[in-house]
Amino acid sequence: DDLSPTTYYLLNIGISVVPLSMAIFYPKIGTILGYAGAASGFFMIYLIPVITYMKMRKIEILYPELASAIQ
């Protein structure tokens, strides 16, 4: 489905206004990037390995033949 012109323009304006307002009201972008980097690092280091392991265990339980072929 294509977006209606009104929805397209509102989405475009919203995408433009949000970063502009953040730059105006909070000019220290380094702090925001630091928090975003910390959250991304936490996700990559702690959550992705656990999620991958749990998904592998689920495959082993549901499809043992597939799990033996993957390993």
Describe the structure.
The protein has 71 residues and is mostly helical. Helices cover 87% and strands 0% of the residues. It is built from three helices and no strands. The protein is flat.
Class derived from helix and strand content: mainly alpha
Largest sheet: none
| DSSP strand tally | 0
**Count of discrete alpha- or pi-helical segments spanning 4 or more residues:** 3
- Please, what is the average pLDDT? 89
Which percent bin holds the helix content?
over 70%
Strand content: under 5%
Q: Note the overall shape.
A: flat
Low-confidence stretches: none
**What is the distance, rounded to the nearest whole angstrom, between the alpha carbons of the first and last residues?**
41 Å
Task: State the main characteristics.
3 helices; flat; 71 residues; mainly alpha
Describe the structure concisely for a colleague:
With 71 residues, this protein is mainly α.
Strand and helix map with partners:
Elements (H helix, E strand, L loop, with lengths): L4 H21 L3 H34 L1 H7 L1
Helix pairs in contact: 2-3
